[in-house]
Amino acid sequence: MNSKDTLLQDEASRWVARMGRSDWGDAHEADLANWLAQNPRGQGELLMAQAAWISCDPETIALGQPPVTTPSWSRRRIMLAGSAAAMAASIFGLVFYNASVSGYATEVGEVRRVALADGSTAAINTDSRIAVNFDKGHRNVRLDRGEVWFQVKHDRARPFVVEAGPVRVRAVGTAFSVRRRGNGADIIVTEGVVAAWTDANANEPVSARAGTQLFMPDTPGRQRPVAIEASAASSLSWRSGQIELVARPLADAAAEFNRYNRRKIVIHDPTIANEEVDGIFRTDDPEGFATAVHDILGVPVRTSGDGEITLGRK
């Protein structure tokens, strides 16, 4: 192995370490995309580094448990050498290099960052599943459930299309998220412009630009979907393991925490469901949220034997 190979492996390992930091954001995603564009072999090295990271310390991929860089660093370096690197490559590399279709899924409370074969990156939110299908003329991603944020590598000859039920979202080189709902899909654009439509109105796409949010229903009615201004930073705070609430009804806030935790929050008093709450919380800390609600609204908080957290009186 020559010095250039070693340097590239070291850089890939550093990128994986940075991904686990709480301050990771859009600027870092863009820097990573640029690094992948400048290093043709960086894609494979990044995948092996990710595999090594997970093999050494699987808990690092859980939200609210950011990797501890110093003690894990030496282990990742070891895993990237020799036969261990080949084993790591078998975990991720074969998915990209021996097949045109690959799938990724996350468990409840897990966020996973994936470097796609075209140089794009995907941040996959809790309890989500995607199927990726790239060929010479197309880049298609099917979102079966959950939510994903994409930093798309620019390639005008191959549009990047996300399918979420009957909803379609197309981009060329941009950044956006798609969340599958029961009756449609939420779309948040953080960079560039996307076009969205459904199978029923493929000839009438709706455009959404950076800094806007769009809900595209599965079955459009007479009223066309409208893009509204949104704070992408707060809506996508899950990428750094946080839930940011701004004048959020208590019932919605509890539902958001329940997305990330098997320990559920239940509101027993319907009179407090619409009380608005604000704050920034860890996704894996429903107890901390419940305590804050108790302090701010003065509502009773109880924990049942099975771990369920109840707010308010019955």
Automatic annotation (TrEMBL):
It holds the Pfam family FecR. Residues 104-194 form the FecR protein domain. InterPro entries: FecR (IPR006860), Ferrdict_sens_TM (IPR012373). One of its GO terms (molecular function) is sigma factor antagonist activity. This is Iron dicitrate transport regulator FecR. It comes from Sphingopyxis witflariensis.
